[in-house]
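name: query_chain
kind: protein
chains: 1
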Amino acid sequence: MDDSHARHLLRIALDEARAGLAEGGIPIGAALYGADGGLLGRGRNRRVQGGDPSAHAETEAFRAAGRQRSYRGTTMVTTLSPCWYCSGLVRQFGISRVVVGEARTFRGGHDWLAAHGVEVLVLDDPECAALMRDFVREHPALWNEDIGDD
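structure:
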């Protein structure tokens, strides 16, 4: 996948991240695209809003996509490097590629995914990085809770 197309797909995930922040949540968004390039599902981190520790952006996009016969050829786009939980989801269901908006704020499991055959593209998007940098500065306790860092 080329960088230009990946950045186009990132727009939906960024919209979700902004919506999550506006709701008082953690600004991480994701979108799952089918092998044909069509949007299957979108989501945002709703851990705070719903009181559900499993409501990460990637899992919300995955759930919104509904049951698929196969995930071969699909692309998970996320504003932040996926945590181990979300990286496990990608591997468990055979999602073919992951586009990461940024990995400066949090370096999740994208290297592990790449080592296990998942195509990974890290965009180092300045808007994604700024969104997370500002959030971490303004809400350090909530951020540390989200990443499991007491």
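note: The beta strands are 29-33, 39-44, 75-80, 97-102, 119-122.
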